Amino acid sequence: MNNILFIGGLGTTELLIIVLVVLLLFGGKKIPELMHGMGKGVRSFKEGMNEVSDNLKMEEKKEEEKSKN
Question: How many whole angstroms separate alpha carbon 28 and alpha carbon 26?
């Protein structure tokens, strides 16, 4: 079980303590709101990364077309 939750040197006990501290600081009602905001941030980050990747692919295609002509 300890190997499954081994994230960057944090064991089960440390993770439980962190969860309890977060619950005490923010309360049960505020945590879903925080997770919702975090989800939106992650989604926005992924969309930005995809946009950059798409732009790079378009530039590569343009360069290939220029080199063929």
Answer: 7
